[in-house]
């Protein structure tokens, strides 16, 4: 399994083993996918998200139950 990303966000360096781990939001609200290399995944117990899926949308208040 390979990805086009060659950067590890955890040690902030290049990597040939980087896999997607989690989504994060920038200050401007854009969502980015963070990648971690094999050593960082092992040291920190990180689990890859494969295939990468976008974050679940935030749910608003629950809708009232339908009337019978």
Write the layout of secondary structure elements.
Elements: E1 7-8, E2 13-14, E3 19-25, E4 31-36, H1 38-44
Antiparallel strand pairs: 1-2, 3-4
Question: Can I get a quick summary?
Answer:
This protein has 68 residues and is an alpha+beta fold. The chain has one helix spanning 38-44, and strands spanning 7-8, 13-14, 19-25, 31-36.
Mean pLDDT metric:
80
**Largest sheet descriptor:** 2 strands, antiparallel
Strand order of the largest sheet: 1-2
Order of helices and strands: EEEEH
Shape: globular
Separation of termini? 50 Å
- In percent, how helical is the residue content? 10-25%
As residue ranges, the low-confidence spans are none
Can you tell me about this structure?
It is built from 1 helix and 4 strands. It is α+β, with helices and mostly antiparallel strands and about 70 residues long. The protein has a domain of about 40 residues. A two-stranded antiparallel ribbon has the order 1-2. A two-stranded antiparallel ribbon has the order 3-4. The model has no long low-confidence stretch (mean pLDDT about 80).
């Amino acid at each position: 399994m390979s990805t086009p990303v060659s950067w590890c966000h955890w040690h902030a360096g290049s990597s040939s083993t980087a896999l997607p781990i989690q989504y994060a939001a920038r200050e401007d609200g854009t969502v980015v996918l963070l990648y971690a290399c094999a050593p960082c995944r092992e040291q920190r117990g990180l689990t890859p998200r494969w295939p990468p899926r976008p974050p679940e949308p935030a749910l608003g208040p629950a809708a009232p139950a339908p009337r019978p």
